[in-house]
Design a protein that fits this description.
Strand content: under 5%
Order of helices and strands: HHHHHHHHH
Radius of gyration: 19 Å
CATH architecture of the largest domain: Orthogonal Bundle
Largest sheet: none
Number of strands: 0
Helix content: over 70%
């Protein structure tokens, strides 16, 4: 059973793991390289994290905690649901374009065929959490009478889908000559289009 890691040590280990995974991918990353980067023994690292998969999953959780937008749009009492949804999409796009975070979906896309547990970890820790937050934003808009009574589950995936496409585009097509896609511009455009389908009084 892994021991609880002191917060400062945990941050140091996960920061080092981010650098190692980003540089070498999952298959090429080694626990001993992470330990060396932190200045601890490999045995000490294994006391904290049972294996590389456990370290990767903890890294995703850490990046969600420190980087991706959390529940802040839900607490903006003076903002409309439309404004909160737009803020959320812009923050998410900004973080997905940040190299400190962007390497994760790139890594999962590139290596999940050989390591399906990476896709599961990314979905369970990151994707499902973000979708739940978007569903909450949509439901609040419905409850306040600002949005039509759409299905929040489907609406959340409509919000997130283009950002996933943007990540895929920049990961797969941009390296072979396609024009890179601005996730921030994509988020702004898509939210504007989407809101015209959500707002009360808009005609189809």
């Amino acid at each position: 059973m892994a021991r609880r890691t002191p917060p400062d040590r945990r941050d140091s280990i996960l920061s080092a793991a981010r650098e190692i995974f980003a540089a070498n991918g999952f298959a090429g990353a080694r626990m001993e390289d992470v330990a060396k980067r932190v200045g601890i023994s490999k045995a000490t690292l294994y006391l904290q994290f049972a294996d590389k998969q456990a370290l990767f999953r903890e890294l995703i959780d850490w990046l969600i905690e420190t980087s991706l937008p959390d529940a802040f749009p839900l607490t903006l009492a003076d903002a409309s649901a439309s404004e909160r949804l737009a803020i959320f999409a812009q923050e998410a796009a900004g973080k997905l374009a940040d190299d400190d975070v962007a390497f994760l979906p790139r890594l999962v896309i590139g290596e999940s065929g050989n390591f399906p547990e990476l896709a599961k970890a990314w979905h369970d820790v990151a994707v499902s959490r973000v979708l739940t937050l978007i569903e909450g934003l949509v439901q609040q808009g419905i409850d306040r009478g600002e949005f039509r009574a759409v299905d929040p589950y489907l609406a959340a995936r409509s919000v997130a889908g283009p950002l996933v496409l943007g990540v895929l585009w920049n990961t797969i097509f941009a390296p072979v000559g396609a024009e890179p896609m601005s996730l921030a511009a994509l988020a702004r455009s898509h939210v504007d289009i989407l809101l015209h389908g959500l707002l009360q009084g808009e005609t189809a």
